[in-house]
Amino acid sequence: MFTNPVVRKVLGTVLAVVIAAAGVIGIIAFFDARDSSTTGSGTSAKPTQVNGASVLKLGNVVLTYSDPSYKKPLRDFAEQNGPDTPNLRAAGGSVIVRHDPHAAGVVARSFAATLQASSPEDPRLQDFVDRWLGAGSSG
């Protein structure tokens, strides 16, 4: 069909670029779907560290979920309570959202308390954050 060697070479190059781009997009989608968490899985996982101190001990609140549809509503909820920045985490003022395939519903954790919520819309989540955000090991 394409007997001209220049046309064949160009089409081959274009096809290789398209296949490579599809592969890169596939890899990105694969890892994004995993929503990596540094807290590990299950309730026995140690939370992340900030300058050697547990994020919970500093006063941060960690929300874990397993249902992928909870990701956006929980991130929006967390953002309404302030940005999650390294400085705010170090000060104990962040609401951190993590995927945990073993979580049932939504689990909110602080240094001193845990709340099991059925969904991101549970009004008790805001009450929990209002009560425990910033209340680390000394609060």
Characterize the structure shown.
The chain is of the alpha+beta class and 139 residues long. It has 2 domains: 1-34; 49-132. 42% of the residues lie in helices and 16% in strands. It has helices spanning 5-34, 55-58, 71-80, 86-90, 124-132, and strands spanning 49-50, 53-54, 61-65, 95-99, 106-109, 114-117. It has a 4-stranded mixed sheet, with helices on one face. The longest helix has 30 residues, at 5-34. It is elongated, with a radius of gyration of 22 Å. The N and C termini lie far apart (76 Å).
Kindly report the average pLDDT value.
77
Largest sheet: 4 strands, mixed
Q: What is the end-to-end distance?
A: 76 Å
**Low-confidence stretches at least 5 residues in length (pLDDT < 50)?**
35-47
Shape: elongated
Annotation, overall tally of beta strands: 6
Regarding quaternary structure, what we see is: single chain
Helices, by number, come to 5
Secondary-structure element order, as H and E?
HEEHEHHEEEH
Taken as a percent bin, the fraction of beta residues is 15-25%
Rg over CA atoms: 22 Å
Coarse structural class: alpha+beta
Q: Widest sheet: strand order? A: 4-3-5-6
List keywords for this structure.
alpha+beta; 2 domains; four-stranded mixed beta sheet; 5 helices; 6 strands; 16% strand
